[in-house]
């Protein structure tokens, strides 16, 4: 029943006869008919137009691209064309058909002449297989049917799921390593000498954490916090950070191999996107002239300056979060509630993280519009070039939105706040936060944990619920009212297409960014999983849990809640691969900085080998970090407090302690501070060079293209040349 196979459906409101909208619609449909398209009209609460392309369009396509996914032209060519190719070609022609008013479908949809244009989910065998083997929760831990996804949604979607599946599989190893790191910390390091010293420091009086109504406090109050800190901040973390740098490289290199295999199996290895786009333009309009390459330095400069301005705005928002934390800390400290004032630092960090999450959600929408505007300014030559340009911009903006606040916590918190008697203040009033005496890494841990958990749980719930509720509402609203039957009146036979078209129309619409959004979400998650993983070793585990759910949630959305995506051809994941490689390099730098600057790993090592009792006496039984806490706290004389400081009168001593390496008399930095500074710098340089060298070796060691794929391509080239030679030989024989 070939007559009822429709490639696309256009939906329109019922306009008045002779109205401008109706005339525009008629002109567009006339243009399609001139090209040989068959159009079928069904009237319901809306007007539905089924569109079917003539066979000669696909014959042209086959003759243009003999090396693509179609077979050589023959009499039954129309049957041989895959459905995905039919939809892709028809979609291109619909989007590029110009009416006599010089309007395209995109312009007509803006003017509400047409409401929607979509290919149909059909009751094919392949759809039943996908619903059974993929788009349901009970097959969560089974392999994805990538070949079937490709046959139904096209190569681009299939490659996304192949990549996501591969990333999720390799996350298992990273998650196990992260769990092992935390387990090692829990078993071995909660009883570490440093934690013990903090828990036993009943007589170590610390300086107040705020200027007004704050009392001195005893170091042993932070015993639990110290144990948590040393669960993350220990020798195992350094090994784990190095492991993750190598893991990121191995993941990408193995993916390149996987992609090469897939692209060869799908006969896409030699496929060229630009050639395909030119071919489609010529099929649509044989007089088409290609748009030539051009580059404007002026336009590029404007785009660059505007992008930098946007980045400065995002960094400014991170500064606002810092100010919030400083003010919140001061207000919580002065509050009447004992719970608030006792845990002011933790509450300030937690609320700061929630606020950071809200800014991420808000700024993501702003970033989207800014990136689109900058792309329009650039005037990309082709749609794929525009997509690449948009990808880079949106990723950079999202990166600063997500990571500015984390960069502050990791590298600036507690390092730019001054010292007792001479604090750095916001607007000359509020003190900046200090690091906890057991280290800053726990602040980073809390910040990352809150953002990752919120981002993944809320995003996933919204991502599923919004389309589901929207689909339900559309179904309720769009379902046609059944006419009440008159006695003896015969029911009119309903067109079999009508129900199918209505069902598809009731689904949620998709646009060209639907797949892009999925990529962006996972790439930002990959950044969290690799860049500051030294501070949050559980990140890969959270990512793994999220991805297992994400794959099947995306599948259910695509198969059951959304209209069918227009299948697109692709032989790799495009510019996202370069983005992932950039994240891999940032991960090495980020983790090196976390261990060198945020973590207490370096100060402890410097103390062990230069200042501990072990250097003076040969104590084999003694832990060399004995005395580290006392050594890392400087002495401050209470008489040197700033005049406006009001301290609760609970303490009669002369001195209090604070975390820094300063002399007790003039508060200048001690020699040990400079030793630690030099050691941090040396470690950073060493770690990054070693990690980058290991990355390069791993990239060299694992070939991008497997041997069997190379041999297969070589044999194909050889046999093609042999065939050509057979044709040429008889004509070349002399005489």
From TrEMBL:
Signal peptide: none
Tagged with keyword Transmembrane: yes
Residue ranges occupied by any Anoctamin dimerisation domain in the UniProt entry: 78-146
GO MF, any single term: chloride channel activity
Membrane-related topology note: Multi-pass membrane protein
TM helices/strands, residue ranges: 166-189, 236-255, 302-327, 347-374, 394-413, 523-552, 573-597, 677-702
Subcellular compartments: Cell membrane; Membrane
Domain Anoctamin transmembrane residues, every copy: 149-715
Keywords in alphabetical order: Cell membrane, Glycoprotein, Membrane, Transmembrane, Transmembrane helix
Top-level taxon of origin: Eukaryota
One Pfam family this sequence matches: Anoct_dimer
GO cellular component term of the entry, any: plasma membrane
Family: Belongs to the anoctamin family.
Name of the molecule in the record: Anoctamin
Organism: Erithacus rubecula
Taxonomic lineage from the root: Eukaryota, Metazoa, Chordata, Craniata, Vertebrata
């Amino acid at each position: 029943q070939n007559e009822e196979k429709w490639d696309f459906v256009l939906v329109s409101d019922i306009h008045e006869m002779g109205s401008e909208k109706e005339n525009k619609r008629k002109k567009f449909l006339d243009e399609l008919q001139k090209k040989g398209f068959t159009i079928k009209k069904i009237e319901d609460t809306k007007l539905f137009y089924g569109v079917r392309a003539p066979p000669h369009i696909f014959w042209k396509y086959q003759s243009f691209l003999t090396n693509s996914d179609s077979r050589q032209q023959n009499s039954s060519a129309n049957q041989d064309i895959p459905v995905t190719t039919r939809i892709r070609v028809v979609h291109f022609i619909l989007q590029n058909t110009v009416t006599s008013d010089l309007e395209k479908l995109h312009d007509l949809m803006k003017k509400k002449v047409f409401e929607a244009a979509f290919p149909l989910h059909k009751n094919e065998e392949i759809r039943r297989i996908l619903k059974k083997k993929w788009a349901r929760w009970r097959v969560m831990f089974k392999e994805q049917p990538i070949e079937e996804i490709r046959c139904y949604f096209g190569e681009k979607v299939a490659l996304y799921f192949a990549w996501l599946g591969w990333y999720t599989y390799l996350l298992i190893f990273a998650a196990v390593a992260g769990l092992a790191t935390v387990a090692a910390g829990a078993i071995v390091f909660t009883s570490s000498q440093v934690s013990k010293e903090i828990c036993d420091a009943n007589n170590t009086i610390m300086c107040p954490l705020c200027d007004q109504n704050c009392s001195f406090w005893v170091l042993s109050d932070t015993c639990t916090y110290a144990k948590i800190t040393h669960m993350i901040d220990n020798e195992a973390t350094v090994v784990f950070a190095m492991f993750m740098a190598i893991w990121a490289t191995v993941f990408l290199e193995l993916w390149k191999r996987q992609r090469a295999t897939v692209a060869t199996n799908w006969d896409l290895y030699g496929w060229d996107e630009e050639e395909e786009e030119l071919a489609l333009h010529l099929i649509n309009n044989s007089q088409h002239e290609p748009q030539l390459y051009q580059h404007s330095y002026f336009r590029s400069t404007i785009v660059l300056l505007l992008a930098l301005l946007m980045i400065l705005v995002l960094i400014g928002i991170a500064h606002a979060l810092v100010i919030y934390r400083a003010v919140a800390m001061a207000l919580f400290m002065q509050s009447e509630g004992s719970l608030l004032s006792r845990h002011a630092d933790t509450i300030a960090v937690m609320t700061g993280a929630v606020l950071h999450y809200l800014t991420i959600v808000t700024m993501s929408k702003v970033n989207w519009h800014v990136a689109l505007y900058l792309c329009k300014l650039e005037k990309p030559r082709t749609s794929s070039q525009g997509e690449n340009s948009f990808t880079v911009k949106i990723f950079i903006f999202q990166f600063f939105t997500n990571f500015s606040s984390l960069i502050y916590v990791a590298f600036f918190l507690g390092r730019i706040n001054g010292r007792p008697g001479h604090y750095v203040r916001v607007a000359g009033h509020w003190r900046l936060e200090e690091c906890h005496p057991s280290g800053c890494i726990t602040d980073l841990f809390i910040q990352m944990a809150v953002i990752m958990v919120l981002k993944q749980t809320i995003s996933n719930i919204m991502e599923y619920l919004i389309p589901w509720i929207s689909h339900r509402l559309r179904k309720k609203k769009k379902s046609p009212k059944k006419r009440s039957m008159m006695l003896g009146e015969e029911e009119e036979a309903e067109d079999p297409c009508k129900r199918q078209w209505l069902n598809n129309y009731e689904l949620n619409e998709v646009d060209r960014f639907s797949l892009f959004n999925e990529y962006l979400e996972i790439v930002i998650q990959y950044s969290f999983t690799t860049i500051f993983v030294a501070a949050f070793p559980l990140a890969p585990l959270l990512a793994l849990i999220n991805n297992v759910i994400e794959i099947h949630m995306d599948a259910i959305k695509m198969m059951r809640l959304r209209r069918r995506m227009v299948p697109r051809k692709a032989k790799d994941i495009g510019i996202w691969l370069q983005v992932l490689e950039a994240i891999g390099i940032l991960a090495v730098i980020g983790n090196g900085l976390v261990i060198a600057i945020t973590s207490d790993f370096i100060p402890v090592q410097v103390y062990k080998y230069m200042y501990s009792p072990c250097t003076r006496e040969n104590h084999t039984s003694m832990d060399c970090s004995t005395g580290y806490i006392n050594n890392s706290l400087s002495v401050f004389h209470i008489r040197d407090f700033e005049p406006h400081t009001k301290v609760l009168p609970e303490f009669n001593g002369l001195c209090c302690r604070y975390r820094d390496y300063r002399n007790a008399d003039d508060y200048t930095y001690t020699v040990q501070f400079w030793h630690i500074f030099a050691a941090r710098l040396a470690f950073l340089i060493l770690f990054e060079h070693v990690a980058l060298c290991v990355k390069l070796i791993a990239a060299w060691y694992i070939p991008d293209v497997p041997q069997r794929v190379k041999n297969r391509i070589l044999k194909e080239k050889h046999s093609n040349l042999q065939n050509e030679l057979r044709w040429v030989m008889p004509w070349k024989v002399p005489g």
